[in-house]
Amino acid sequence: MTGVSLGLRTSGSYGSLQQQIQNGGLQPQNLYIPRRPSKTSLNGSKEKERFFTKIFRFLSRKKVGMLILVVFALLAFMTGFFTVNKEVDLNSSGLGFDARYPNKSYGVPSLFPGEESMQSNSNFMNNKIIVCDENTSWAPSPFDASATVNTSSAASFLPHPCRDFAFPPPPPGDRRRIGPRPCPVCYVPVEQAVARKPRFSSASPVLRHLTYFSEENPLKSEPHGGSEFGGYPSLKERNDSFNIKESMSVHCGFVKGCRPGYQTGFDIDVADLRVLAQSYEVIVASAIFGNYDVIQQPRNIGETARNNVPFFMFIDEETEAYMKNTSLSENEKQVGLWRIIVVRNVPYADARRNGKVPKLLLHRLFPNTRYSIWIDGKLQLVVDPYQILERFLWRQNATFAISRHYTRFDVFEEAEANKAAGKYDNVSIDHQIEFYKQEGLTPYTAAKLPITSDVPEGCVIIREHIAITNLFSCLWFNEVDRFTARDQLSFSTVRDKIVSQVNWSINMFLDCERRNFVIQAYHRDLLERRAHMAAVVRHYSPPPPPPAATIVVEKFVPKTRPIRHGRDKRPGPRRRRKVVPKHRENSFI
């Protein structure tokens, strides 16, 4: 037998010395002795083949296959059941937030050239820079399952109901109503609006992956470098953030942690953070800081939106204290449709600047949300959210929509109007405008068409949360953090820098269309002042007239001369006879 049989070890050290002696001594040239296969091993292999053949024939039957599928389904169900129970037990346990939510981040040993040499400083040694990789992809959840409609239905192929809608001329002037007014807008019914919702998220041009810087101890290196909450980005970092690439890392607030709202400034309770982290298809958000406005309840909201679109109202502790004292609601977490989110440790002293955080950084507070509608706290929503999204995003194939200012289109005019109205410090406004002029800002002209305006009316923002819109929101917030809080002044600069590099645009619709779906109220201080004046007028009563003066009218009694007798009689004036001269007497003869 010349071949090597099965079961033979190939190592000479494991050979049998007795077998070699029986073959005639040691033979170094033939150390590998073939071993004959035993009959039992051959019989065992044949039995295995027969056994496997019987198993395959048994499994090929239909009933057995169905039984196996049922067993696998039961195993999958039990696995999911125990996983859910484990998650519930984890949430109800006493573990901290860090233990329940792992930090998705990776360290950056050196971000900029020459950083190694600076690490010798103790301040830089304590400043660890990481990049936060947030999950910004939207996934359907049971929360909005009832709102999910098959967009492949006939509704998306039928002619649009508003295709023949002609924009009417502006209404005639009215002396009793001065100022901007709403204009008619064609909305489709709510059911059709939901049916026309895009099935997939829009594509982000160029930019695919966006991450955010986080620093334990941000250091200010320039006099106009923003705030600690924003991370003090340098001028070089600011300019580099406008260089659009496929993968980018930028400053975007919340720099002290990778979970916005958890020990980052603008802190939110852990229970509320869990609510914000859920998957939502559409949300509506607003904010009131400094007790500056009165909560306005939405109207005309359809049943689908009431069941599937949450309304979030961010307030600070000052506004919370006022709500508790006035007993606006028995439930501290819910006022009408609004879910109240209390913010503690606000990053700015100016309440209006604090309001820019949720206004511009909703994508960071809601990392798993697809669409959002932002309205200022003084506004009342009077149109269903699905109709608004269909009209200003889906119908226009847009991912970001904002209304233009009703009278001003030029940033320079807007700056002068802000200074005249005392909206912000004049020196800071001049510094910002001068900086933009050096970067190439010019007055708005028709040469910028199809861009229709450089000045937005930023009280309403409608957007889809994709990478490019998230980047725009981050860079817009960085400008507000670096310069003045008047976001109208920095809007066009950020927009133009991005539009010049990628095929992306913003739908700037008319301000009268915005006034069609929101009603603007006055701020709380003005409302209270007007209410006080109305109460004063209502309870005002004119003072009583002064008492009439008593006029004594004396009766006129003519004076009579007393009759005098005897000696008391005095001669009265005698009438002298007129003497006529003689020459006149002669003249009459």
UniProtKB/TrEMBL annotation:
What protein am I looking at?
TOD1/MUCI70 glycosyltransferase-like domain-containing protein
Bias class Basic residues marks the residues at 562-581
Question: InterPro entries, alphabetically?
Answer: TOD1_MUCI70 (IPR006852), TOD1_MUCI70_glycTrfase_dom (IPR048354)
Taking every annotated instance into account, which residue ranges of this chain make up the domain TOD1/MUCI70 glycosyltransferase-like?
A: 210-523
User: Is RNA-binding there in the keyword field?
Assistant: no
Keyword annotations: Membrane, Transmembrane, Transmembrane helix
Positions of the region Disordered? 562-589
**What species is this protein from?**
Penstemon davidsonii
Any one Pfam family here would be TOD1_MUCI70
In terms of superkingdom, the source organism counts as Eukaryota
Q: Where do transmembrane segments lie in this chain?
A: 64-84
